[in-house]
Amino acid sequence: MITKKAKPRGGIDLGGTKIQAAIVDDSGKVLGEARRPTPTSGDPQDVAGEMAAALREAADDAGVETTSLEGIGVGSPGDADERTGVVSTARNLPGWEGSFPLAETLKEALGTEVRVGNDVQVAVEGEYHLGAGSPYSSVLGVWWGTGVGGGLILDGKPWLGRGAAGEIGHMVVKRGGAKCPCGRKGCMEAYAGRAAMEAEARRQHEEGVKTDLFKLMHKHERERLTSGIWERALDHGDPLATSLIERAIEMLGTGVASAVNLIDPEAVVIGGGLGERFGERYMDALSKEMGKHLFVDERPPALKVAALGDLGGAVGASLLFAR
Question: What pTM, to 2 d.p., does this model score?
């Protein structure tokens, strides 16, 4: 019996600094890819335009037409409604305070079905099926990047709650603490999110604290303190970069341990731009900080760094058409 070959799928990972697109076959193999910077100005329509362009480039790389794909999955920050394809309050993106019909807009641009999901949740599902989470039935994903996001796999199934489960970055780690980009105070993201860390670095630098962070940023022609800039500053022994990263690890450990105490997962997978760059480097420190707060400290969850790399979010997004 001859079986019909499954069509390839598209995946787009929409991040605060980059848009990563991939064309993926039914086994999860990447056939083509493309990457573009996320716009720093404009509105959701401008972001959607760059997303469509990235997906077209990935399709060209794979030698396929976008209209021939089974569908395109999108992992988006903010409140991504899987039912309607609308994304709301994606505050790490330019002008995205309200709601925008992202799936419908991309469908019109690319000529195939589009589904959206939370960016971290779909990346965690990718790691669960194809990466570091594959040996486990329950996984807490913590994506440390522009913000801090989370995703959950419980008993082998994604847990979305009422649509907003997994927002670990907005667990309060210090009452009345630092102001978070979400507008509240004391969230984990207020200490560990790259955007919040950059804001704090700028504040201290303007008050006279010495740092090479911004010299390195200009030298390498970056508009933001990317994970690579933070790494270079740490390698140079920059005291401000070191103190802010160590503070981030402390707060990550506190918040992740609290989440572990609630759901008791088999594994915690650390991903995101900062997580993948610094996960191995600070794994022992993160484990130590978690250990201070774990209720069952003699049986901690396995602590893993995401294995799918830069393409993990896009690959995970493509699985929205494999559920």
Answer: 0.86
